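Hey team,

Filing this mostly as a record. A colleague (T.K.) asked me to run one chain through the structure pipeline before their review meeting, and I want the input and output archived in the tracker in case anyone asks later how it was produced. No errors, nothing strange. Just documentation.

Input sequence:
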Amino acid sequence: MIVTIHRGSHQIGGTCIEVATSNTRIILDVGQPLGDPDAPAKKDQNKDLPQVPGLFEDLFEEGPKVDAVVLSHAHGDHTGLLRWVRKEIPVYLSRGTSKMLMAGSIFAGQHKLARARQRTLRPLQPTRIGDITITGFPVDHSAFDSLAFLIEADGKRLLYSGDLRMHGRKPGMAAQLIRHISSRPVDLMLMEGTNIARPQRTGSSTENEVQEHFHKTMQACPSLVLANFSPMHVDRMVSFYKAARKANREFVVDVYGAFVLHLASGQCKIPKPTRRNQIAVYYNQSFERTWEMRNLGKVREMFLGDHIELSEVLAEPEAYVMMFRPSMLKPDFGNSLPEHTYCIYSYWSGYLKQPQYTRLREKLAGVSGELLEIHTSGHISRPDAIEFVQAIAPHKVAPIHTETPDEFLSCFPNAIIIPDGQPHVVDQA
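Output structure:
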């Protein structure tokens, strides 16, 4: 078994990993480097393609056939290069990842993955790809239905963590993975290290604490509460919803958020977007201007019975928590927010440097409002990562999805660093 990290050994985002035997090649994730979370993907952004022979259409050298692309979750830094992957290569993914990719293609300008190319991975069920066997394990992350992968071939066992955390709503997922994996030695573990350089968790420490912080903020706010977060983050959407209910406010989502809730509610126990559930659907101006041109009539009709007009929100702003993005400020609100509006920002803090947030802060200040950062990472903390790796007890552990790979050397005596582009032969434990 040979592992090549084509990209990701020393950066966050843009992950692309090859696992190969003499007969089979699979690619774990095909990610685009991180950027604006709300910016639509551009078809000409192929400058970010890693040089993987045989993977992309009409680019680089041919190389041996790629048998499959395997996706851990639907975030763009793991899926953003799908549009350039050769059309004959099948894509293996979870049901939830398929649903989130569909939502992203409709609402966020992401690539539409043809159903004929998709192969569903059932959790805990081994799937054979050539002479490689891959088993997906559910993990708690900020993308719905994320998976880690156990990959077995040539008598070797490799565990790819994907992106995960231990401080979310579902800590039992990690316990289940450890229980299944630790019965036999793991020869190599590729472990995400997004937060490995930080001694403690970033932001509020758990998803439940985030929810409680939301609730207290909603109680303290005398006016409208705006919720700025990724619609793909289903757990965060549930946190906003539960906090709003506790604060006796109705949760207003846009059509994107409503569609994500609709898709996810068919797979797990979360509320459907209905006013009976205290969830109203707002058709923002961007959607209303473009739905007909994009042939989204069926999507538009889905939530009309539960829609809410902005005038209803503005007439009684203290009664609502409203999903919001800065691009709505001018077309929807006319650059005028209700007095004392609070905006809860629940993304990575780095995005706040963008000009759209500078303008938003100015508008909030003009109405005696506030922008409050309330967030916890979708990625595992350093203490939890150490505990997790120790529980798996791999023969070797290598960093992935991190800007500080050398930190692994101080955390794990069995750590190795596999530089980008260098094939690594997996040693048996």
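Quick notes for T.K.: The two ends are 13 Å apart (CA to CA). Residues 187 and 429 are 5 Å apart (CA to CA).
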